[in-house]
Automatic annotation (TrEMBL):
The keyword Transmembrane helix applies. It comes from the Bacteria. It comes from Roseateles koreensis. This is DUF4064 domain-containing protein. The chain crosses the membrane at residues 54-75, 80-99, 105-123. Keywords: Membrane, Transmembrane, Transmembrane helix.
């Protein structure tokens, strides 16, 4: 299972790196080409210098992506998983305490009942049965 998750993570990182490199190459070649023009909603952009706000938008997207990848999992971890872990530890401690108190309170009964239980089990143990000769077929009887 761990190998599968590592493989999925590696593939995801390779795809992200490839897309970042492809975007960078497109940006470089598009800005250096004089024949490049881009049309959005009927408005034509001939040079990438007209996209002054694009760097700010890209920075905003990067910050939003980091928040989604780092802050959101940590918030979920500390708001959901940590209280559940604490609750499980408290219930485990209570169960351990109840078992300990129960063992102390019922130890005289256990000491009296244990020899009786072992004796009854010993008396009820079935005797070993011998198998009939027909069911014990050896390798010579195979046809």
């Amino acid at each position: 299972m761990k190998t599968t998750l590592k493989l999925i993570l590696l593939i995801g990182l390779c795809v992200a790196l490839t897309s970042a490199l492809t975007g960078g190459l497109l940006w470089h070649f598009a800005s250096s080409s004089p024949d490049f023009h881009l049309t959005i909603n009927g408005q034509e952009f001939t040079q990438l210098s007209e996209f002054k706000g694009m760097a700010g938008g890209l920075l905003g997207c990067v910050i939003a992506g980091l928040v989604l990848c780092i802050v959101l999992p940590l918030a979920l971890l500390f708001s959901v998983a940590l209280p559940v872990l604490i609750l499980g530890l408290v219930f485990g401690a209570l169960l351990l305490a109840f078992l300990g108190v129960g063992g102390l309170l019922f130890s005289p009964l256990i000491l009296l009942a244990l020899p009786l239980f072992l004796l009854a089990r010993l008396l009820r143990s079935p005797k070993k049965r011998t198998r009939p000769a027909s069911s014990q077929a050896g390798p010579a009887s195979r046809g």
